[in-house]
Design a protein that fits this description.
87 residues; alpha+beta; two-stranded antiparallel sheet
Length: 87
């Protein structure tokens, strides 16, 4: 198919306290109009890697958009308020 392309992502982690190393490599097919949000696909693979090495997250979605420092601070405050926590 001429409107698809491949993408390879690799993740690695070394636990310094135990000298344990984890590596993962995934090959993705990106199809125009179907899963063409590359950052979202990379985020999905990163979440999978985190689960495999023991860092389970309660949600699968990870924000993969560019944010300014001011936007990050604003979002932290909004999320803390919504969650009833403090930052």
């Amino acid at each position: 198919m001429e409107d698809e392309y491949g993408l390879t992502v690799k993740f690695g982690l070394k636990d310094e306290s135990t000298n344990t190393k984890y590596k993962a490599k995934s090959k993705l097919r990106i199809y125009e109009g179907i899963n063409d949000d590359v950052l979202l696909e990379i985020g999905f693979e990163f979440n999978n890697f985190l689960r495999q090495v023991g860092y389970v997250r309660s949600e699968d979605y990870m924000l993969m958009e560019d944010l300014t420092e001011e936007e990050v601070e604003y979002l932290k405050k909004c999320l803390a308020n919504r969650r009833g926590t403090s930052i």
